[in-house]
Amino acid sequence: MTKTAASRVLGAELETGAVAVPPDQAEMIAREHYGLVGRAEWLWGEKDSNYRLTLEDGTAYLLKILNPAEDPQVTAMHSQALLHVEARDPGIPVQRIIKTREGAADFRFVADDGGERGVRMVTFVPGMAQRTSPHSTLQRQKIGALLGRMQKALKSFVHEAASHRITWDMKHAMGMRDLMPAFTDISQRTRLEKVIDDFEREIVPVMASLPSQVIHNDFNMENILVDPDRPDEITGIIDFGDMVHAPVLFDVGVAAAYQIGSEPDPVEAMCDLIRGYRSECTLSDTEIDLVYTAAVMRLVMRLAIPQWRAKLFPEDAERLTIRSASVWEQLARLDAIPKHKAIERLRAANRQG
């Protein structure tokens, strides 16, 4: 696989490494632009340079120094979306924008390496990642309901950058074919290609007619925070970095794919999410019949994109592919359930709100 071929699939934001800004520079940015004095602790990110800024009184903020390949308009869209959700539904536990001394939601600066980068500061949402918490039916249902609320809050959000191309946008999922040469195991490659074939046959022909809006597009277990003492309580939804204008179906499919987790019955886990979602939003018969295919395509993307990036950034290969084994296990568990049976169960869940 050549870089040229993969470049038709991966956006520039994933072809540019997450070069860290030195901690002292991050602290200087916080001090000069926000009037906040604290200690900056680096946090790993797929594409950005992230810092937890802790003040003397213990108050924490997230200082996000964005990938130099990110379009300034996209940076602005993410900031405005956070403000929009806060205004439309203040009960959704998203990070709150901390404005600069000049009242800006984000700004641009030139880093020591000469690259121009965007900066955004937000509150540090409390809680632990859902991935590391105990999981339950009620927790998944609450996540589904919160996804529905998020979609309702974003329904009226418009931005000129909303149709930008990003790697994780399922509208461009057919490009995963170009990444298949990254898999040398023929059985693995054949399994992934079958999913791509299903997506092309079932979703591509109707994609343009599906209800669409700006979606979060990354309701995964790292971006969903829960109360450590009461893990059924959702305390935060973070990371709007993959948001895009796309079919609502894809937002649901992404969320359903992640809720599979390590559950022995992966379809029931997806059904839990759908039942919760149904309490806030309604999927059409066409959409619910396609949730399974969209969810499995997300699993393919979770395997193919990190596999390619691991070759591009070999020094981060282990970190980038750390979840791949568990995703293959999820596919295996799904394969043990006939697809038509899975769709029947999802239909039933969509009728249970």
Q: How many strands in all? A: 11
Broad structural category: alpha+beta
CATH superfamily of the largest domain: Aminoglycoside phosphotransferase (APH), C-terminal lobe
Supply the number of structural domains. Answer: 2
Secondary structure layout:
Layout: H1 3-7, H2 12-15, H3 23-34, E1 38-43, E2 49-55, E3 60-65, H4 72-88, E4 97-98, E5 107-110, E6 116-123, E7 128-129, H5 137-154, H6 186-202, E8 212-215, E9 224-226, E10 234-237, E11 244-247, H7 248-259, H8 266-278, H9 285-312, H10 317-320, H11 324-335, H12 339-350
Antiparallel strand pairs: 1-2, 2-3, 3-6, 4-6, 5-6, 7-9, 8-11, 9-10
Overall description:
There is one protein chain. The chain has 353 residues and is α+β, with helices and mostly antiparallel strands. The chain has 2 domains: 3-123, 2-Layer Sandwich (Phosphorylase Kinase, domain 1), CATH 3.30.200.20; 128-350, Aminoglycoside phosphotransferase (APH), C-terminal lobe (Aminoglycoside 3'-phosphotransferase, Chain: A, domain 2, Alpha-Beta Complex), CATH 3.90.1200. It has helices at residues 3-7, 12-15, 23-34, 72-88, 137-154, 186-202, 248-259, 266-278, 285-312, 317-320, 324-335, 339-350; strands at residues 38-43, 49-55, 60-65, 97-98, 107-110, 116-123, 128-129, 212-215, 224-226, 234-237, 244-247. The strands form 3 sheets. Strands 1, 2, 3, 4, 5 and 6 form a 6-stranded antiparallel beta sheet that branches. Helix 8 runs parallel beside helix 12 (339-350). The longest helix is centred in the last third of the chain and has 28 residues, at 285-312. The radius of gyration is 20 Å and the shape is globular. The protein starts with a helix and ends with a helix. The model is unreliable at 1-5 (pLDDT under 50).
